Amino acid sequence: MFYQMIFQGQFFLVSALGFTSIVALTTGTSWGAIGTAGIAMMGVGETLGVPAGITAGAVISGAYFGDKMSPLSDTTNLAPAVTGGTLFGHIKHMLWTTVPAYSITAILFTFIGFSYQGESIEAASVMEMTQYLEGNFRLDYVALLPILLLIVLMMMKKPALPAIVISAVFGGLLGIFYQGVSPQRMLTIFYSGYSADAGIRTVNALLQRGGITSMLPLIALFLFALGLGGMLSDAKVLDVLLGSMAHKI
User: Fold this and answer.
1) How far is it, in rounded angstroms, from Cα 127 to Cα 150?
2) Phi/psi at 211 (nearest 5 deg)?
């Protein structure tokens, strides 16, 4: 299975690359993927004896690829909005340069991974992690439905915001009626993120994330940037600066 490949040295780097790519693609954020799946992969890599720099390279490469290709990414939406293009047309044209680079990266990390062939996490450690997850969550194909719904909405070329909201609400309902989470607890998770001390560093790094509050610094940055841009535009400062630069070109 995929999680078994992650815990084996020769396949760890390319698995970390693919895992963070999927997380970033379905969430639309490279930093979010690095801060969740990436931190977990760093812990696994340290246990396997893989240098932190190489593991970070696989994590960052996967996260930025997924972010670049995701219809939910802010920068991927911003570029066609500014230039007058379409979102999926923009993604289609990026494939010509991004996919070859990603393929070469995957091949390189596959070959590098064979340098750590034979390294693996002890079965007891893997069992401890899986027992905690299976004891606290119902891990089956039903748990993948919110992500699958999000992927379907992206393939149907639905706008990013409604797709995120619909999949998040569906995931919340699934958590209440399928995972047995109380509605009050689910609202708390939506607001401040999931919080639980598993006593296992890798599991804690993977689970203790999310919530609206985790996005407040980014939201504040956007608000200040838009406010500053509006003031500069109304004061004609940008027109003066761009006009003086245009005369020199």
Assistant:
1) 31
2) 90, 155
Q: How does DSSP assign 197-213, residue by residue?
A: --S-HHHHHHHS--SGG
Structure tokens that stand for 61 in this block: 């490469």
Q: What are phi and psi of 180, to 5 degrees?
A: 80, 20
Select from 75, 54, 53 the least CA-distant residue to 64.
Answer: 75
Two tokens, residue 244: 């003086």
Give the pLDDT of residue 120.
53
Please say if the pLDDT value at position 5 is more than 80.
Answer: no
Inter-residue contact 19 to 86 (CB < 8 Å): no
Domain ranges of the chain: 1-121, 137-210, 222-249
Give the span between the Cα atoms of 62 and 46, in whole angstroms.
Answer: 18
| Distance between first and last Cα of the chain | 58
State the Cα–Cα distance between residues 40 and 34, nearest whole angstrom. Answer: 9
0.85 exceeded by pTM: no
Amino acid at 10: Q
Q: What is the pLDDT of residues 171-199, one digit of tens each?
A: 999 999 998 889 998 998 888 888 777 67
Query: Model confidence over 144-175: pLDDT tens digits?
Result: 888 888 878 877 877 777 888 898 899 999 99
How far apart are the C-alpha atoms of 243 and 249, rounded to whole Å?
Answer: 10
CA 165/CA 146 separation, integer angstroms: 11
